[in-house]
Design a protein that fits this description.
The chain has eleven helices and five strands. With 264 residues, it is an alpha/beta fold. The mean pLDDT is 95.
Length: 264
């Protein structure tokens, strides 16, 4: 749509979690390094952030980084009762036709983890939107998964990803047995103005831009309007590029951004 006008090879601010577009400022780099550490140590990790903070993109980058040594299971919608949750875990970890009884499911998952260990491999389970988990029982199944271990190592790494309210929920004494097992915990924060400037430049460069496309005033308006939330930045930056194209501009200025904000 606007790529040709701005001489881009692809859309710079699309919504898909493409790891090439991961912007590693100090916060996101630390988050990724901590998650990598948790996975290598086969620990339980907790990653939280507001809606649109980039949590999903960060976990996709994590999966790319860990490589083929890990059998990766991704649960994108964990709003499941305990047995169905375990069944989904089993399927994600490569089990064919897993049983539906909880005890048998845990036994089969355990056997699968042991088989992976025999192959010098391991398992990684990423539970996205974990704040949507419906009740204590499903969290208890996650805790039971972390029980699978040998004398000197765990057999599965688990990363819980969710909105900040997940932390408040897990602080309840009901979940103490689970939270005591969290080895790595990280909260994402919004981008600063400097980070917003670098974020826009990074995504444009990945998309093929060879020059700056947003004026400093435009960047300031985008940051103020979005509070540095990446998903909101992506949306407004796209609309601003379209607006700039419609105006026949050489760059996107604060007037174009203001017009977008009026219409949005």
């Amino acid at each position: 749509m606007y790529e040709g006008y701005w001489e881009l090879e692809e859309k710079a601010f699309r919504k898909t979690p493409d790891p090439r577009y991961l912007f590693l400022n100090e916060t996101y780099e630390e988050a990724l390094e901590r998650l990598l550490y948790a996975v290598e140590e086969m620990e339980l990790a907790l990653l939280t952030g507001e809606v649109g903070a980039g949590k999903t993109l960060l976990t996709r980058a994590l999966v790319d980084r860990v490589g083929e040594r890990f059998e990766v299971g991704m649960i994108l919608n964990p709003r499941l009762p305990p047995r169905q949750f375990l069944h989904t875990v089993a399927v994600e970890l490569g089990l064919e036709d897993p049983p539906f009884h909880s005890t048998e499911l845990l036994d089969r998952i355990h056997s699968r983890l042991l088989a992976l260990d025999d192959e010098d491999r391991a398992a990684l389970l990423v539970v996205d939107e974990a704040h949507l988990i419906p009740g204590k029982s499903t969290f208890e199944e996650i805790r039971l998964l972390t029980n699978f271990q040998l004398d000197d190592r765990n057999l599965i790494a688990v990363v819980l990803v969710g909105q900040p309210e997940l932390r408040g929920r897990l602080r309840h004494r009901t979940y103490q047995a689970l939270t005591q097992r969290i080895g790595v915990s990280f909260q994402l924060v919004p981008l600063s103005l400097d980070d917003t400037r670098a974020y826009l430049a990074h995504r444009l460069a990945v998309a093929g831009a060879e020059r700056p496309l947003f004026t400093e005033e435009a960047i300031g308006r985008l940051h103020a309007a979005t509070d540095g939330v990446p998903r909101l930045l992506n949306h407004l930056a796209t609309q601003a590029l379209v607006e700039g194209m419609a105006r026949g501009a050489d760059e996107v200025d604060d007037v174009a951004v203001a017009a977008v904000l009026e219409d949005d």
